[in-house]
Amino acid sequence: MTRLRVQPFDEKRIRISGIPPVLAFMLRELPEILELRDSPDAQTRLFPNPTAEDEKANDEWREVTGPELRHLFVSAGETVARDLTALTADEAAPQEHQVTFPVEHVNAWMSALNQARLILAAVHEIGDKDMNRTDFDPTSSRDVAALRIHLLGYLLHLFVELDNADEPENPV
Q1: CA dihedral of residues 5, 9, 12, 13 (deg, nearest 10)
Q2: DSSP string, 7-31
Q3: What is the residue-level pLDDT of the chain in tens, covering all 172 positions?
Q4: Which is the most buried residue in 29, 47, 147, 148, by most CB within 10 A?
Q5: Where does residue 97 rank: exposed (0-12), middle (13-18), buried (19+ CB within 10 A)?
Q6: Strand arrangement of the beta sheet that strand 97-102 belongs to
Q7: How many whole angstroms separate alpha carbon 25 and alpha carbon 31?
Q8: What is the rounded distance in angstroms from the CA atom of residue 114 to the CA atom of residue 140?
Q9: Exposed, middle or buried: residue 113 (CB in 10 Å: 0-12, 13-18, 19+)?
Q10: Which residues partner with 90 through β-bridges?
Q11: Where are the domains of the chain?
C-alpha cells in the first residue's frame, strides 16, 4: 500500500512524501521525458489544432500561441527539474522518498506531469486500449510507458485534490 501524499508542509511549501522507489526513479527521469516535447508526435499531442476544418485558423493559432505555450511548458519543466534536486530518501521511512518545494510551484508541477503523460503517450503511441489493459510486460517499452502514465496521473490527481481542498464544498 502506498503512502504517497501531496500536502502543505507549511504556509509556503508543499511536500510530496511517501514516494515509492519506482516513482522516485520516474520523477528523476521527468526532465528527460520533457525534453522530448519537440518531437513531431509530442508536438501534435501538446499543441492540437483548435479546429478540424479551418487550416488557416489552425496555422494562425500555432503562430500566435505556439511560442508562448512552448515557453510556459519549458518554464514549468525547468521549475520542476530544479525542485527535483531536493528529492531525497525520507529519514523516517528510508525506502520512501520526499521532496519539498514552494507552493508557487504547484501549477508548474501539474503542467510538467501532464506534459510528461502526453509526451509518453505520443512517443510510444499509447491509446485508451493500452491504458485499460490489465496485463503488464515489464520488457515492453510501451507497457512501461503506460505504467509511467498511470503513476504520473495518480500523482497529478493528488495535486488536483490539493488544489481543490481550498475551494468551498458548496459553491454558490
Answers
A1: -50
A2: EESSSSEEEEEEE-HHHHHHHHHHH
A3: 468 999 999 999 999 999 999 999 999 999 999 999 999 999 888 988 888 999 999 899 888 888 899 999 999 999 999 999 999 999 888 899 999 999 999 999 999 999 999 999 999 999 888 888 888 888 888 889 999 999 999 999 999 998 787 655 555 4
A4: 148
A5: buried
A6: 5-8, 13-19, 97-102, 88-89
A7: 12
A8: 22
A9: buried
A10: none
A11: 5-164
Contact 111, 153 (CB under 8 A): no
Inter-residue contact 104 to 82 (CB < 8 Å) = no
* Interacting residues of 114 by C-beta distance below 8 A, sequence separation 6+: 156
Q: Which three cell numbers stand for residue 22?
A: 519506482
C-alpha grid cell for residue 118? 502526453
pTM: 0.88
**Whole-number pLDDT of residue 114:** 96
